[in-house]
Design goal:
By secondary structure, the chain is an alpha+beta fold. The protein is 31% helix and 22% strand. The chain has 3 domains: 175 residues, Glycosyltransferase, CATH 1.50.10.10; 118 residues, no CATH class; 111 residues, Immunoglobulin-like, CATH 2.60.40.
Length: 418
């Protein structure tokens, strides 16, 4: 369909028609970056190098295409529609920008594993260059938010309907779309800017009683769309967890889990009951009763963040560093598939004691630990009852206590704080 460009289609209908994604259409450019991340994620969890190799050249082509052919003003940011399919945005979209940075890092990791030095150097160099200029290009200190799009001072052929503003060569626009959360979802935002943005995003402009809105409301200037949806709310659940805000993340996880009976019993729908939700619409115009991405905001925060399970099977490594919401005393999973085997893991906290347990197959290097609040002071760390050497790593999540060991026997780590 798109020749050798590597641009990923957004939606293929069962009759064969395409809804966004051909080379001739302005969107959805985000899909090309997200496809790279999807492949890299499956590869890390499965260790399937043949799957990586099957998609590798296509990913290279796609990321090269969107960072060259779709960047007509050569500022590094691809032009074209992202996940917000609405008029009025500038040519460069926030979600496209951050997903491109993440995708380039994913490609660099896969290239390194293959010994493809040229691709590794290009992808990592491009990602680092964009990351270095991201805050300056996108952060709007007057609003305490990232611009949700950048308007250029001229029409671009890659997105001819985009808003043009002639004040400056590049102009920051803010229309309160939900993609404001994507810099935190991708862990690209600086911690202080993330904290500032969260204070607005979790408030009534963007968040209602059932989820995260499609477009925030700020009357009289922006009427917005107070329609909550699974994708938006999932992005916020992941974004909050990335920055160690587990209580806030759980709030959005709970929003999603509460919608199981909105459209069809047992199905997580595309849209949630919310102020602008329309119950009665024709079948061919209403939203979907269930989507695959609707569970993203439950499964990913619970497994990847709350339990902290992060496999890298191609490198024979497994990280399990939980961080439970304060109201959850424990969490566990059994028979979770990693590589060609499974693992069981659990986390508990009781007062100043934090326990992580892991039972995984032989042959893995395991980093087991717990993510504490940023100012925590460690009193002791034991592994299977014996004192253990550990490292401390301060991240966006907080202060991670990490012990490195090998798999093959049940492991129990106990961290006690002062």
């Amino acid at each position: 369909m798109n020749g050798e460009t590597g641009k990923v289609l957004h939606e293929i209908v069962t009759d064969g028609s395409i809804y966004f994604g051909t080379n001739a259409q302005p969107g959805d450019v985000n899909e090309t970056g997200e496809f790279a991340t999807a492949v890299a994620t499956i590869w890390r969890w499965s260790g399937d190098n043949s799957f990586r190799d099957e998609n590798y050249d296509f990913i290279k082509d796609g990321l090269n295409y969107i960072t060259t052919s779709l960047d007509t003003n050569k500022d590094g940011w691809p032009e074209g529609a992202g996940m917000v399919e609405a008029a009025g945005l500038g040519a460069e979209k926030l979600d496209v920008a951050v997903y491109t940075i993440r995708a380039l890092n994913d490609l660099a990791e896969m290239a390194e594993s293959k010994g493809d030095v040229a691709t590794f150097n290009w992808a990592r160099g491009k990602a680092e260059a964009l990351k270095d200029k991201f805050e300056g290009d996108w952060w709007d200190s007057s609003r305490g938010l990232y611009a949700d799009s950048l308007a250029l001072d001229h029409v671009v052929t890659t997105d001819p309907s985009a808003t043009v503003v002639t004040t400056l060569p590049v102009n920051k626009l803010q229309q309160l779309y939900w993609i404001n959360a994507t810099p935190m979802e991708t862990n690209i935002a600086k911690a202080d800017h993330a904290s500032t943005a969260f204070s607005t995003l979790q408030g009534p402009i963007f968040t209602g009683d059932t989820g995260f809105f499609q477009q925030g409301q700020e009357l009289p200037l922006i009427k917005g769309s107070r329609q909550a949806s699974a994708l938006n709310t999932s992005v916020m659940a992941v974004a909050e967890a990335n920055y160690g805000r587990m209580t806030e993340s759980l709030r959005y996880v709970t929003f999603i889990a509460s919608e199981l009976d909105t459209e069809q019993p047992g199905a997580l729908p595309e849209l949630f009951n919310s102020p602008d939700y329309k119950y009665f619409q024709a079948f061919n115009t209403r939203a979907m009763v269930m989507q695959a991405w609707s569970s993203y905001g439950v499964e990913w925060p619970v497994i990847y963040h709350f339990l902290g399970v992060r496999p890298n099977i191609p490198h024979r490594e497994l990280t399990v560093i939980p961080e439970l919401p304060p109201t959850w005393p424990m969490l566990s999973v059994e028979d979770l598939r990693i590589g060609e085997s499974t693992l069981s893991a659990s986390a508990t906290h009781n007062g100043n004691q934090y326990t992580t347990s892991v039972d995984a197959r032989f042959g893995l290097r395991i980093r087991i630990g717990y993510a504490l609040s940023a100012d925590s002071q460690v009193a002791s760390v034991t592994l299977n009852g014996s004192p253990a050497s550990y490292e401390l790593k301060d991240t966006h999540r907080g202060r991670e206590v990490i012990v490195t060991t090998n798999s093959g026997q049940p492991l129990q780590l106990v961290v006690t704080t002062r």
